[in-house]
Amino acid sequence: MALLPLFKTNDRILSQLQTQWAAILNVLIGNPSLQCNILSNVSLKNGVTVINHLLGRTQQGWRIVDINGSASIYRSQPFNDKTLTLTSNAAVTVSLEVF
After folding, report:
1. Domain locations in the chain as residue ranges
2. Cβ neighbours of residue 66 under 8 Å, at least 6 residues apart?
3. What stretches in the chain show pLDDT beneath 70?
4. What pTM was computed for the model?
5. Fewest beta carbons within 10 Å, which of 7, 17, 67, 92?
């Protein structure tokens, strides 16, 4: 995650403001859950399903944001930079937030 850049200036007040803004905004910029993708209408089968998470980086986490049935779903492989592997005990359609 890129941090907020600080611009060189001789103005002491502007320099202090930049430092204060960076201290606040870098916390938000660095939060992986704010840099997410929503994967809608993902069909999970009874068993293992591999999904391309489209993040272009190693995933930090995931959440189910919608589900059309009752199922127990868990991640069954370590996070990586391309896919999310989920195991379900029922065939369901979900929408996922991946971050």
Report:
1. 33-98
2. 40, 94, 95
3. 1
4. 0.72
5. 7
